[in-house]
Specification:
It is a single chain. By secondary structure, the protein is α+β, with helices and mostly antiparallel strands. Helix content is 48%, strand content 24%. The chain has two domains: 1-29; 33-126, Alpha-Beta Plaits (2-Layer Sandwich), CATH 3.30.70.100. The protein has helices spanning 2-28, 45-51, 55-61, 95-103, 105-117; strands at residues 33-42, 65-69, 86-92, 118-126.
Length: 130
């Protein structure tokens, strides 16, 4: 009987320690960081289209990935207000990686063209831990 009680207590202690360790690992996990780009209006379609294929390799090289990206055929359904003509959502592991991507020479060059050819905005937002 004492052996069964000792085994049950050991098993219970193991489960409690395991649950605490898993909870600690979840608490340490950083939430993803997102870069949002909203193209409100395209002023120079040719210049804008010329830079589009140059972004994906720079996103991938910085460890980012596309979560959402509209094209000229996609429709954005407005819930409130006027939706942008195009919308891009990128995910990065951290705010530091997103900021490093944004500060890279390649992105600075492409963004300069984007600023001239569109009315757009971009920003970084930290996601929520799951």
């Amino acid at each position: 009987m004492k052996r069964l009680l000792a085994l049950a207590l050991t098993l219970l202690a193991g489960v409690a320690i395991g649950a605490t360790a898993v909870q600690g690992l979840h608490a340490q996990a950083k939430p993803p960081t997102y870069v949002v780009v909203a193209i409100r209006k395209i002023n120079d379609a040719d210049s804008y289209k010329a830079i589009l294929p140059k972004y994906p390799p720079l996103v991938a090289a910085a460890g980012g990935r596309y979560v959402a990206r509209t094209t000229s055929d996609d429709k954005i359904t407005a819930l409130d207000g006027t939706p942008p003509q195009r919308f891009i959502l990128l995910a990065f592991e951290s705010a530091e990686k997103a900021q490093a991507w944004h500060n890279s020479a390649g992105i600075k060059e492409l963004d300069a063209i984007r600023f001239k050819s569109t009315d757009s905005l971009s920003f970084i937002v930290e996601g929520m831990a799951e």
